[in-house]
Amino acid sequence: MLVFYQRGCLTGQPFLVCTTEIPDCDNSFYRLLKHSGGKKRSFADLLPPPGRLLRPADPIFIAIAIYKQNEMYSRSLLLSAVGIGVFQAVTAQQIAVREGDKPVPYARVAIVPLQKSISGVTLLADARGNTSIPEQFEGLRCAVKVQAMGFEPAADTLLAQKGAAVQRFALHSKGNDIREVVVTGQYGENTTDKAVQKINVIGRKTINQMAAQNLRDVLTNQLNIRLEQDAVLGSSMSLQGISGQNVKILIDGVPVVGRLSGNIDISQINLNNIERIEIVEGPMAVSYGTDALGGAINLITQKSQQKTFETGLTTYYETVGTYNINGRLGYNKGRHTVLLNGGRNFFDGWIAGEKTSFDFSAQPADARRYASWKPKAQYFGELKYMYRFKDLSLSYKGGYFNELITNRGMPEAPYQESATDDYYRTRRIDNAIFLTGSVKPGHNVNVQVAYNDFRRVKNTYTKDLTTLNEALSQQDGAQDTTAFQVISSRGTYSTGKDQKINYELGYDANIEYAKGERIEGNNKSIGDYALFASAEYKPLKNIGIRPGLRMAYNTQYNAPLIPSLNLYYKATDQLVIRASYAKGFRAPTLKELYFYFYDSNHKIRGNRDLQAEFSDNYNVSIQYADKAGDLRYKLEAGAYYNDIRNLITLAVSNPSIMEYSYQNIGEYKTLGFQFNTEWGYKQLKAAVGGSYIGRLNNIPEAGFEKFAYAPEVRASIQYEVRKWDLSAALFYKYTGRLPGFGLDAASKVMNTWIDDYHTADLTLIKQFFNRRFAVSAGAKNLFDVQNVNMTTGASGTAHTAAGTSSMVGMGRYYFLKLDLNLGWK
């Protein structure tokens, strides 16, 4: 068994090379002796000449442990060096190994010159996923193969040139690898099995297999999430039975601005440049403040690319009248990366009973101009620039979004020659600057400064259906402009070394401005400023305790101290138990306090007397993950309990005109149980899960004093035939009967129910030309769901007439997606 050490070109520090994994390495490793041929040898005896290349005939297997700053990191990889030399010396050209924008540490990089007379070498990437091509290969064309445990190998050819741009190799996780990397609420990048919180990750591969165009399409198939659709206000969601106004939606950690009726329209959040989605269930108020009482959804965008130039074009068509197109362009050179993407989404509206295919037959003029699913057109674009220092990166991201929703009215009496049409224009402008990375090994910083501008304009026209002329309506509330601007900054400093105590210190500042005729006084603002801290203590290697505390100042409400406590116990390598407690706080928004919104379907008034919401949340989960050969599986079970006081909701304030206002309804509770399984075998991956969610509106005078439960079941199966570059995926969800309550015209509380329904989507993907071109086709809403019955009080709710139905889908329809990706160096 051969052991030697030398100074490495990657760190300039001594490193050890031996034939086996080194147990319990520490600062005394210089004294370590190993046997070689039955004879003890010291390092001095084994030290090779500087820069000597190990000859291909040397039959060794090596593992490397890097000694740096008087510490030995006990990380090792087993490499086969039979027939290939191992070399660490003067470098010529850099190689970076990445999974998306994340480094793949200690990847194996085999370089073989195409000239048969020259031997190849095997290099080992450092902890940041970087290594170098030996300068002796300069000017030679080489075949490069990159491998790492848990990833598919990547291969390419390149011309080794000193001083040339960094060559990037993108690795992709194996299909049966269930672990994912996460950043939301973490001190640094972490894997889901090591995170103290339970985090659900939806990767780019799954997004493609869903043929998802926006966040709504993805969340349709998720457990513990329920969606609602409004013809004008768009798609909203609830998480663990808690409405979307208590769920923080972020993109790269920056909050999405523009809540309507308390909710973000998730159909406005496009996924064309999203790398993965991280969903954290339960309060995240310590880290993310107000609106994170029920949880957080963080969308992580693409931040890097493998080649110098990359471009792509995607088109998408649905038989219900959706026509989308988007393009992307990327440039990467040295320390600089520029990414540009943009596109247009168009939907021509849908009417119940409409054929989900082209229909060129004659149609009566204006007889079906009113659509239950409104026509909409979206234009969007984003520019991202990143500059990489040695261990830090500085980046800017600018985004633009514009949407037009057309609400055509029915022909009006007495002569059916005119109609009233509404146009809703939404515009978002987002700007953010990020500074992320390490100031020194194990010490991370993450600072962001953002400015978000949201504007919604409503115009109402009276249209002459004989001449098609339009005139602005003079009715009260017919024209309206509302604008929101948010200036925010968030920064954290954290440690992430493998030690007993790690910590995070941070600040969070948000200032929101609202302007418009529908805002009381035409101009209001609210500010929220906070300091937060948490520490993770590991008394033993397999036990983690993370307390946290947030201290905040709100310009309109007295914010309490917000504590949290997370417990993590890794009983075995396969079994992990988590438990947590967190307190939540949410101050009413400017819209809930001061906004007035009137049209033919909505009459909503703000309430300046609202009280802030407070909550307590309890979560417990158990996870078991293991593998046997090619089989990997994960079993999860959990329970949660949310207790919210002063919950803010819409309620009838003036029955005579059916005007609604925001009210504190008292106590609201949710209690849930869930179970999930995931299985991966070679190219097959399957998942089955279920949940049972109870909701309690504590209104004793109305007789609501017990939990009313609703079940959910989801399943998915994904299969790849890599030989043919073909994959198939099926996603299914059962959404159970939902009980609730409503108010009649006399403000009397009544029971309500929304019937259960099934949804399912099927996708087939075939890739061509070395995966540069992909065709996706399939069907959505296989069970042909449109509206589900809604039993409610005589007056219904703010957005749905009494005893009618709730919008769910547009029936069964089919889609086709074409995706072209090109890249060159």
Largest sheet, if any?
Answer: 22 strands, antiparallel, barrel
What multimeric state do the chains show? single chain
Tell me the fraction of residues in β-strands, as a range: over 45%
Rg on CA atoms, Å: 29 Å
Low-confidence stretches: 1-91, 794-802
Shape: globular
Q: How would you classify the helix and strand content by structural class?
A: mainly beta
Helix content: under 10%
Compute the number of helices.
5
Instruction: Give the distance, in angstroms, between the N- and C-terminal Cα atoms.
Output: 43 Å
Number of strands: 59
Would you tell me the overall average pLDDT? 81
Helix and strand layout, with pairings?
Layout: E1 4-7, E2 14-18, E3 34-36, E4 39-41, H1 43-46, E5 61-68, E6 71-72, E7 79-80, E8 85-86, E9 91-99, E10 102-103, E11 108-113, E12 121-124, E13 130-134, E14 141-147, E15 151-152, E16 154-159, E17 167-170, E18 172-173, E19 181-182, E20 190-191, E21 199-203, H2 204-210, H3 215-219, E22 225-230, E23 234-239, E24 242-243, E25 247-251, E26 254-255, E27 274-281, H4 285-288, E28 295-301, E29 309-318, E30 322-333, E31 336-347, E32 376-388, E33 392-407, E34 418-440, E35 443-464, E36 470-472, E37 480-495, E38 501-516, E39 523-537, E40 543-554, E41 562-570, E42 575-586, H5 590-594, E43 596-598, E44 603-605, E45 613-628, E46 631-645, E47 648-654, E48 659-664, E49 667-681, E50 684-698, E51 708-721, E52 726-735, E53 738-743, E54 749-754, E55 757-768, E56 773-780, E57 787-791, E58 805-807, E59 813-824
Parallel strand pairs: 8-12, 9-17, 25-28, 44-48
Antiparallel strand pairs: 1-2, 2-5, 3-4, 5-6, 5-7, 9-10, 9-13, 11-12, 11-14, 14-16, 15-18, 19-20, 21-27, 22-23, 23-24, 25-26, 27-28, 29-30, 29-59, 30-31, 31-32, 32-33, 33-34, 34-35, 35-36, 35-37, 37-38, 38-39, 39-40, 40-41, 41-42, 42-45, 43-44, 45-46, 46-49, 47-48, 49-50, 50-51, 51-52, 52-55, ...
